[in-house]
Amino acid sequence: MATHSENQYFVPHGSVYPSILSLGLLSLISGFVFSVNHLAFGQWMMYLGAAVVIAMTFKWMGTIITENLTGKYKAWEDKSFRVGMIVFICSEIAFFAAFFGALFYMRMISVPDLAGFDVDITPYKDFLSTWPSAGPGGVVLGTEYVAPKFTAMGPWGLPAINTALLLTSGATITWAHWALIKNKRTQLVLGMLATVLLGVAFLVCQGLEYHHAYTELGLTLGTGAYGATFFMLTGFHGFHVTLGTIMLIVILIRCMKGHFTPEHHFGFEGVAWYWHFVDVVWLGLFIFVYWL
Q1: Which domain holds residue 140?
Q2: Domain total for the chain?
Q3: FRET pair for 12, CA 20 to 30 Å: which of 4, 103, 125, 243?
């Protein structure tokens, strides 16, 4: 059994969770591969793998919460959790930086360069230097391309509403954090509930935005460089908002159960850091994808 003191890092006893979770992931990924190759049992392998992953995630996280509530985690663990969360957020920054870099490269370098070659020596003589770009247009390498017609997604309307929703959610989770520090339980729960509702509202609005893009604007994932970067950046951000909202719901339930104290509440802080990161990324998206 594990032993623990103020000067000793807590080492949990052996667990079957990693092995079972690995099998669930193997089933999920293998099922996907079989499914795309039109094997009927692949779909059921995916469902089984997903169920195992979800079950093990809840079970494993529940064990960690129990360890925390029973006093297993002291100063050393708190420090390592904070460092781990900082490293995780830095990896997420690098993830989005790659996609923003691809957007800037195509918009500022590759598209103008391809359209700027000498018309007498380049097969790209009719390449259209426009942004948003849905494709080369004109004659490229002896083949005539007709760029699909579409309308770029503007910054106002649903994108502006989503910006207001996320900025407000950043304020409500900060309000809840202040309440936790001052041990105001009602304000804490109300602040977290408001943050969850704002996150859900953002996802609903993004779904409506995608429906509008596909059905009315002609903007799809296959609409050239613009469509690809638009949906990759906003879609992955939406995925992060979904994960963040799920984490917020878990933290809300824990707040209602009184799991956090003004002195010990890193679980709350870690999710709050993640949510503020999501807010900042959206501001970058709103400016560079929607507005400029």
Answers
A1: 105-145
A2: 3
A3: 243
54 and 167 assigned to the same domain: no
Spatial distance between the Cα atoms of 53 and 22, rounded to a whole number of angstroms: 8
Could you give the C-alpha distances from 113 to 106, 124, 126, 232, in angstroms and in order? 10, 10, 12, 23
Do 138 and 194 sit in the same domain of this protein?
A: no
How far is the C-alpha of 128 from the C-alpha of 288, rounded, in Å? 21
Instruction: Tell me the C-alpha to C-alpha distance, in Å, between residue 223 and each of 214, 217, 219, 235.
Output: 10, 11, 6, 15
Burial category of 143 from C-beta neighbours within 10 Å (exposed 0-12, middle 13-18, buried 19 and up):
exposed
**Averaged pLDDT score across all residues of the chain:** 86
Name the token pair of 121: 């020596």
Q: Is the pLDDT of residue 252 over 50?
A: yes
pLDDT of residue 127 exceeding 80, the answer is no
CB within 8 A of 155, min separation 6: which ones? Answer: 286, 290, 291
Contacts of residue 6, Cβ cutoff 8 Å, sequence gap at least 6:
74, 75
Percent of the chain with pLDDT over 70: 87
